[in-house]
Structures are given as C-alpha cells and as structure tokens.
Amino acid sequence: MSALIPRPVTQVAPGAVHVPNWLTLEEQRRLVAACRGWAAGPVPIRHTRLPRGGVMSVQTVCVGWHWQPYRYTRTAGDVNGARVAPFPHWMVLLGRRAVLRAYDDREAADAYTPDTALINFYDGQATMGMHQDKDEESSAPVVSLTVGDSCVFRFGNTETRTRPYTDVELASGDLFVFGGPSRYAYHGVPKVRPGTGDPATGLRSGRLNITMRVAGLTDTWPAPAAAGAR
Ligand SMILES: O=C(O)CCC(=O)C(=O)O
Ligand SMILES: [Fe+2]
C-alpha cells in the first residue's frame, strides 16, 4: 500500500477504534526515550503486586497519578514512597490528537485532558488478564499506544470477561481508543509476539504500551515541600 494513502480506521465496537500505524517512527523514538526516563525514576518501573499476593507479569510505571490495585495516589506507597513524575503537557496534546483521530470530534478532542498514564512493558512472556479500567473517577476515553513488539489485544464486552470478544493485532505505532459505550469493556493482552518490533524505535525487544486516562481526582493535600525548602 502506498505510504501516501492513510490506513483505514477500524471500529472494533461502538466507541472502540483501532488506528494502525498512527505514530511516526520519530514519535515512537521520543516515546521510548521518555518512557526510559520514567522507568528509571522517581518511581522505578516494577511488577505490580496484587492484593492476594500475586505479581503482574508486565512491568509498569505511572506518570501523573500512581496506580496500584485498585486506586490512584500521587505517591507510590507500594514502591518507594516517591511522588510520581508529573504528566507532561506534550502528552496531553498527544492524547487530544489521538481522540481527534479516533472520533473525528473536535469538541471531544479539545475537552480531553488526560492526567495519568500507565506505561506497561511486556517481555516476550508477559500477558495481561481480562479486566476493566474502572479505578478512574472520569468516564473519559482511554488512549492506548503501542511501540515495539506486536501483541494480541483482546477487546471484549462490558458484561463479562469472556466471549464475545474481538482479537486485534496491535503493532508498533498503533493507536487504540476506547470510550463511550466501550469505556468499561473488558480487555487484556493474551500474547506478545517477540521479535516483531523494529529496533529503530530504540526498543530492542519487548512491547511498550502507554495508556492515558483521566483519573479525575483532586489533591487533598499540597505536594510535600522539597527537602531543604522549609
Ligand atoms: O497493553 C495493553 O495494550 C493494555 C494495557 C491495559 O489494559 C492497562 O494498562 O490497563
Ligand atoms: Fe486496561
């Protein structure tokens, strides 16, 4: 297919849109570099511990608000107690462009102000079970980006974690947005395809996934003063 012809957008379910090859290689490179920085700190990337003692196979670091099962906080009490990195304005703008591309709705795009992102790193074995994203106070759409290895993204229904679902192949640069009637659909990643990513993104192996959301929370206390600033 000619590079000049935009690839079609696929509606997987009402409000759930897949846009293949949305990010340029340069944008993917910049995302990889930004995520590398966040993975190093102030809260290092880690396998999230689950309340019943398990650990997730995916590694996750958050910006804006820290997610741990099943709430958002400003500080990472389950990691090192540090405050998470701020949500950068350039990522707000990227989120708005994503919503505009997915829904072709300027008003919805302009109103979209993501304030948290989960950055997930999958090695060849990592998977994510079927779940709903429902710890946010807002029902604004979730914007998901893939860089690196492809995966099978299973997009289901709002009622059960089982069928009916659609298996979507998400490749490097792809955008997936789910909002509206699909905002609370169950979804998961049953399989990553090792070796399918282009090392030119800066990611030698594995799959990077960034999901932006609107946590919709307000701070009840001011940020702790920096050491020495009292
Ligand atoms: O890796 C993905 O594509 C999905 C990630 C996800 O569902 C989540 O972080 O809640
Ligand atoms: Fe999710």
Task: Write a structural description.
By secondary structure, the chain is α+β, with helices and mostly antiparallel strands. It has a single domain, classed as Sandwich (Jelly Rolls). 16% of the residues lie in helices and 32% in strands. It contains 3 helices and 14 strands. It has helices at 25-40, 89-103, 106-111, and strands at 10-13, 16-19, 46-49, 55-63, 66-68, 71-73, 116-122, 128-131, 142-148, 150-155, 166-170, 175-178, 187-193, 207-213. The strands form 3 sheets. It has an 8-stranded antiparallel β-sheet, covered by helices on one side. The protein has a 4-stranded antiparallel β-sheet with strand order 8-13-10-11, with no helix packed on it. Strands 5-6 form a two-stranded antiparallel ribbon. A hairpin with a 2-residue loop joins β5 (66-68) and β6 (71-73).
The helix-and-strand class reads: alpha+beta
Q: Tell me about the largest β-sheet.
A: 8 strands, antiparallel
Summarize the amount of helix as a percent range: 10-25%
Radius of gyration: 17 Å
- Separate helix tally: 3
| Element-level helix/strand string | EEHEEEEHHEEEEEEEE
Q: How would you write the strand order of the largest sheet?
A: 1-2-12-9-14-7-4-3
Low-pLDDT windows of residues = none
CATH architecture descriptor text: Sandwich
Q: What is the CATH topology classification name?
A: Jelly Rolls
Overall structural domain count: 1
| Fourth-level CATH superfamily | Alpha-ketoglutarate-dependent dioxygenase AlkB-like
For the secondary structure, the number of strands is 14
CATH class: Mainly Beta
- Terminal CA distance reads 61 Å
Strand proportion, as a percent range, falls in: 25-35%
- Can you list the ligands bound to this structure? 2-oxoglutaric acid, fe (ii) ion
Shape type = globular
Mean pLDDT: 95
